[in-house]
Write a structure and sequence with these properties.
The protein is an alpha/beta fold. The chain has a single domain (about 5-110), classed as Rossmann fold (3-Layer(aba) Sandwich), CATH 3.40.50.360. The protein has helices spanning about 15-25, 45, 70-75, 95-110, and strands at about 5-10, 35, 50-55, 85-90. It has a four-stranded parallel β-sheet, sandwiched between helices. Helix 1 links the parallel strand 1 (about 5-10) and strand 2 (about 35). The chain is globular, with a radius of gyration of 13 Å. InterPro entries: Flavodoxin/NO_synth, Flavodoxin_CS, Flavoprotein-like_sf. This is Flavodoxin domain-containing protein. It comes from Romboutsia faecis.
Length: about 110
């Protein structure tokens, strides 16, 4: 049985989109995988997924992109409990604190 995998991402320059596409292509043996830009994603895309990939570059002061990705993350906070989640992104992550902060936010939701 193939898990339902949704890859949801935001990309400003195209680097994170390339990462998302690589994940998608690497999962091509699974017929239940979808690649979704965050501006086209909704809470149902989260609810239906067994495994959820979330991608976003760090922005400015090592934060999520604020106009699309941050609101999306807030909108799904009640729906990610028990989900297998993989975080990915590009740009400068400093010493890794940005990814640790994002992971901590996910843990608090789940």
């Amino acid at each position: 049985m193939n898990n339902k995998i949704n890859i949801i991402y935001w990309s400003g320059t195209g680097n994170t989109e390339l990462m998302a596409q690589s994940i998608y292509e690497g999962s091509s043996k699974n017929e239940n995988v979808r690649l979704i830009s965050v501006d086209k994603a909704n809470v149902d895309d989260v609810k239906e997924a067994d495994i959820l990939f979330l991608g976003c570059p760090s922005m400015g002061n090592e934060v999520l992109e604020e106009t699309e990705m941050e609101p999306f993350m807030e909108s799904i906070s009640n729906d990610i409990k028990g989900k297998k989640i993989v975080l990915f992104g590009s740009y400068g992550w400093g010493d890794g604190e940005w990814m640790q902060d994002w992971e901590e936010r996910i843990r608090k939701c789940g």
